[in-house]
Write a structure and sequence with these properties.
Structural class of chain A: alpha/beta
Low-confidence stretches of chain B: 301-317
Order of helices and strands of chain A: EEEHEEHEHHHHEHEHEEHH
Bound molecules: adenosine-5'-diphosphate, magnesium ion
Mean pLDDT of chain B: 83
Oligomer: heterodimer
Number of strands of chain B: 4
Strand order of the largest sheet of chain B: 1-2
Strand content of chain B: under 5%
Low-confidence stretches of chain A: none
Distance between the termini of chain A: 44 Å
Largest sheet of chain A: 6 strands, mixed
Number of domains of chain B: 2
């Protein structure tokens, strides 16, 4: 089953001043596949996400998504192509209720809000939209806090809201940046379950950055390891973890800490 | 060539003062993350006290300098740090901006309240050995007098001392470390509070110094004169990307020098001389905002430890019990009906005028609710846009005889168009960058269009003839036409804003305010959102300006200067920027308070105190971002709720234990 790659990176590099945050990275994610992206702190994982989503412009290389080359396309258009993400440093909409977070995503999937429709009272929430939102809330398990403002939620719940918001836009690929940091064991297990469900039932591809390696092992089909901006290893989770270079990169960090 | 230097040299002292304030800006921004607009006000305050002491109290320059600059200025800075900025979260850019703007507005208004109105013109220099009126020697035919010498000496000494402090002392090292990451410095066991306080003291001292140095070069000085100082300093700091002290210094001096060179070479009768020259600092600022790539990422958190920031603490829920909600709603409708009936029947003319002004101002302020409260874009030129509406309609009425109602709509459209142009120019800017761009636009209008007598009618403004107002000709409800018109326009704008807020665009705007990164990441086109919201807010501000003009029967450029744009922000922030009620309460509250203050004696009734009061409310933005008044209202609500509807209250606030239940 030689599927067409959904997301493919070829020789992507990004540096800040003298620091090569991402250096010559190439790998592929196929449609419906779940890939782990791991590596010690400062490896350049978040920077790579920013390059894929357009928050940062990469210096070299090529990123293709679903047959389109992404260079030069603004962030919001990439999102409409079907790239969804969550953020390591939570980016929730202050003062907004959880349900409205999902509503924003649901609407933006269908393109721009039209001002004249708002003014003519033609942009009421439809039943279909309501059902979609409720379904996603249920999936992530945050229905009980649907009407709460995110200001009143803790870090862990904010991460779940971000996850739900990304999923409500029904992306083709979900880039999740450390979704379990700040969550307790049960919540982490919950997130892992959600990611698996999304992959299996909706066929969403997943690129998961995560420090909790046991969670990565549970969720992903394949793992890519980065260290100091470069690609270190690629393969199944167990293969990669057995790789001495990978062990060294991780142990090195622990030794320093 | 001699000519050239002859023109260049007199610019050096001006340039020095710009450089001093610019360096102060860089220092505070780096050490504390606050871009302190208030330095303009602080410079003014120091110069005010200094001149008061030398002119009215007969002090000689040096002791007055010690009191006003060496003692008072750093104390003010320390107070700001201790009582205001220290309480603001690290990443809360808006709060920092709002507070510093409120101080910029509040300080110059506070001075006449404390000291009484003063006529200050005879300013001394700080050192007795530099006599302002003695020419010590001439360089290339330029007379070098005491003002010149003291300014240059002081600037050089201060900058050398500061560089030495930053380069060679431990404290300076820590201050530069705070640039990289405040928490990294803390982790090193450094008392970062002390470093921050020192930065505030030093930069405030420099602001005071610049004010006192600049004072003798003006004849009769007013707070507005310090706007030029502030903008030149901001422009210089911007070219240094708010980071580089040498570049900020150099650009500051250059602005001073180039101004005088241009003044020397440009023919005095040309449009360049009258319009472009005073605007030079704004062009320098706008150029930095447009072309420097670094301005884009000004607010982005470069802090490597940013991800371990603790999340902001959960805030109290703003929800009301349904019964309470219903009751308040009814009470408001009753109140509104009583108000309208009163206005149409027994209200004395003075007070009807007060409320009419309030309604007109509310319309202008509503544009701030839309653009800042709903969309999170800090726009500092809403007053200018109102002015565009005002002058357009007044000109159309006076020249074409167009009815103000029709001309008003055209004026509003033009204001919207101006807003869109500024939005397009600042697409790559956000936060502080956008605030600076809109401020530059406001100042540019003040110096060009609004300063042109053929457009704005000069000092006395453009008077309107009654017949162009249309109101008395069309419908005359016993002289209440203005009230009904104002009410209708305001109600229309309120409905528009509420309708937008309810819909998709409103939700997207709220998303943009919450997090631009996440909004774009979901597929929201921020560029388009911004253009739409600038256009709408510009149009509403323009309509408000037209209403004010109809009410006053005159459009005056003094009404729409940049300082009023800032005051408007302060008003709305005090009552609550997030709600439509906030704008209305601010607009009406401002005029009602002003009117009430006229019943007080002398110095309190001069119009300054009301601004001080609101500024005092606005500096509490960090603690009450929803507005001090809004906060008080919520408190009151909760108290009533607990009394009247205890069941619902305790259901909404499960953490509180109802009296009589043993926990
Ligand atoms: N905006 C930025 N400016 C400068 N350096 C950055 C920026 N973002 C990330 N870096 C640097 O790039 C490297 C990779 O960071 P990051 O992508 O956050 O790593 P990871 O997510 O794997 O922990 C780090 O050394 C970090 O300091
Ligand atoms: Mg990361």
């Amino acid at each position: 089953m030689a599927e067409q790659a959904l997301l493919s990176l070829r020789g992507v590099s990004k540096s800040f001043g003298g620091i090569h945050a991402v250096h010559d990275i190439s790998f592929k994610v196929r449609a419906g596949e779940s890939v782990g992206l791991v590596g010690p702190n400062g490896a350049g994982k978040t920077t790579l996400f920013n390059c894929v989503c357009g928050q940062l412009r990469f210096d070299q290389g090529e990123i293709m998504f679903d047959g389109t080359t992404l260079a030069g396309i603004p962030t919001f258009k990439r999102a409409r192509l079907g790239i969804g993400r969550t953020y390591q440093k939570v980016e929730v909409f202050t003062d907004m209720s959880v349900r409205d977070h999902l509503m924003v995503a649901e609407r933006s999937r269908c393109g721009e809000g039209r001002l004249w429709k708002d003014l003519l009272n033609m942009s009421k929430v439809s039943r279909q939209e309501m059902e979609n939102v409720e379904a996603t809330l249920d999936l992530v398990g945050i229905s009980s806090m649907a009407d709460t403002s995110v200001n009143a939620l803790g870090l862990g719940h904010c991460r779940l809201v971000e996850l739900a918001r990304a999923l409500a836009a029904e992306p083709k690929i979900l880039l999740a940046d450390e979704p379990s940091s700040g969550l307790d064991i049960h919540e982490t297990a919950e997130v892992a379950a959600v990611l698996r469900t999304v992959q299996h039932e909706r066929g969403t591809a997943i690129l998961l950055v995560e420090h909790d390696l046991s969670m990565v092992g549970e969720v992903v089909d394949r793992t890519v390891v980065m260290d100091l901006g470069s690609l270190l290893a690629e393969g199944t989770f167990d293969e990669v973890m057995a790789n001495p270079e990978v062990r060294h990169a991780y142990l090195g960090q622990m030794g320093a800490a | 060539m001699e000519n050239f230097f002859g023109f260049a040299l007199p610019g050096v002292p001006y340039g020095c003062t710009y450089a001093i304030v610019a360096v102060g800006l860089v220092l505070t921004y780096q050490a504390t993350g606050v871009f302190n607009f208030a330095f303009g006000g602080q410079a003014y305050a120091a110069a005010f006290v200094f001149t008061l002491l030398t002119q009215n109290e007969g002090w000689s320059g040096f002791p007055a300098f010690l009191v006003s600059v060496v003692v008072m200025s750093p104390l003010i800075g320390l107070a700001f740090d201790r009582f205001l900025f220290r309480k603001v979260g690290n990443s809360n850019t808006t709060a920092k901006l709002v507070i510093s703007l409120s101080l910029l507005v509040g300080i110059p208004s506070l001075l006449p309240v404390i000291f009484g109105a003063q006529n200050l013109d005879d300013t001394a220099t700080i050192f007795p050995f530099f006599n302002p009126n003695v020419v010590y020697f001439t360089v290339l035919q330029v007379p070098i007098n005491g003002i010149y010498l003291s300014t240059i000496t002081v600037t050089v000494v201060v900058l050398v001392a500061l560089t030495a402090l930053l380069r060679f002392t431990n404290l300076g090292l820590q201050m530069r470390g705070a640039v990289e990451s405040r928490r990294l410095v803390q982790l090193d066991g450094v008392n970062s509070g002390r470093v921050v306080a020192l930065a505030w003291a030093i930069s405030s001292f420099m602001a005071g110094l610049a004010g006192v140095l600049l004072a003798p070069t003006f004849g009769n000085f007013q707070s507005d004169t310090y706007a030029t100082l502030m903008v030149a300093a901001i422009a210089a700091a911007a070219w240094g990307l708010l980071r580089s002290i040498p570049i900020a210094t150099a650009v500051g001096v250059l602005i001073g020098v180039v101004s005088t060179i241009l003044k020397g070479y440009l023919p005095t009768s040309s449009i360049f001389f009258s319009a472009v020259l005073p605007s030079l600092p704004f062009f320098v600022l706008v150029a930095a905002l447009l072309f420097l790539p670094g301005m884009r990422s000004l607010d982005m958190n470069r802090d490597p430890l940013a991800t371990i920031d603790p999340p902001p603490p959960p805030t109290a829920a703003a929800s009301r019990a349904p019964s309470m909600d219903r009751m308040i709603r009814r009470a408001w409708w009753v109140f509104f009906a009583v108000f309208v009936v009163s206005m149409l029947t027994w209200m004395p003319k003075t007070w009807e005028g007060v409320f009419n002004s309030g309604l007109a101002l509310s319309t202008v302020l509503l544009s701030i609710t839309l653009i800042t409260g709903m969309a999170g874009q800090l726009s500092l030129f809403q007053g200018t846009l109102a002015g565009v509406g005002a002058f357009t309609s007044a000109q159309l009425a006076n020249h074409l005889g167009l009815n103000m109602l029709v001309g008003g709509l055209i004026g509003a459209l033009l204001a919207a168009a101006v807003a869109v142009v500024v939005a397009l120019l600042s697409l790559r800017l956000r936060g502080l960058g956008l605030a600076l761009m809109t401020l530059a636009a406001a100042l540019l209008f003040d110096n060009t269009f609004f300063n042109d007598a053929s457009i704005t009618g000069g000092v006395s403004g453009l008077s309107l003839k009654e017949k162009w107002l249309g109101t008395s000709a069309f419908f005359n409800f016993n002289g209440h036409a203005l009230f009904l018109l104002s009410l209708a326009v305001l109600a229309g704008c309120v409905l528009l804003v509420l309708q937008v807020r309810k819909g998709t665009v409103g939700r997207n705007l709220a998303a943009m305010r919450g997090s631009e990164t996440a909004a774009a990441g979901l597929g929201i086109n921020l560029t388009w959102q911004r253009i739409v919201v600038f256009a709408l807010a510009g149009g509403i501000a323009g309509l408000g300006g037209v209403l004010v003009t109809i009410g006053a029967q005159v459009a005056n450029s003094a009404q729409w200067s940049y300082s009023f744009s800032l005051i408007f922000i302060v008003l709305v922030v005090t009552t609550g920027v997030a709600t439509v009620e906030g704008a209305i309460q601010a607009g009406i509250g401002f005029f009602v308070t002003s009117q009430l203050l006229t019943y007080l004696p002398g110095r309190f009734g001069g119009g300054s105190l009301v601004i001080v009061l609101f500024a005092f409310g606005a500096v509490q933005y960090a603690k009450h971002p929803e507005g001090v008044l809004e906060f008080q209202k919520r408190q009151g609500n909760m108290r009533f709720e607990r009394l009247l509807f205890p069941k619902e209250y305790y259901a909404l606030h499960p953490t509180e234990i109802a009296p009589g239940t043993n926990g």
